[in-house]
User: Fold this.
Amino acid sequence: MDKEHNLYEVAYLVSPAYSEAEAQNFQQTLKNLVQSLGGLIDQEGEVFKRRLAYPIKKMREAYLGNFRFLLAGEKIAELENKLKTSKEVLRHLLVHTKRQPPRTIRSQVLKPSLIPQTDKPKKTQKTETEHLEPASDIAEIDKKLEEILGK
Assistant:
């Protein structure tokens, strides 16, 4: 007999006919069962109401509950049996999992040679008087345009 504890995760849907308090109590009942079988709760889960992607037993909503725990492999059948025979549970999933190390996020540092250089001049704020051009400047611009276009 293997006395080594394995890490498991259980997720289940509780019928919306029950109240949120009853769904919370059902999760506590499952946790107590795991602990009575010699298991340890690894990660406390939540119970919250969830809209389902498709109807299950003609129900569109359910309470979703989950938690992770350590338990010996030969004791998992009792927990599975409790989930199968429970009238509250619409569906359940019990999986053997591995502990995931925390993910580290690498920040990318751009080398100065990789940063795109732009030749655009920096924009400065102009006052209203700078936006208005005198009529003589417009006449000069028109004159230069005619020279360029050859008219």
About this structure: The first strand starts at residue 5 and ends at 14. The CA atoms of residues 1 and 31 lie 23 Å apart.
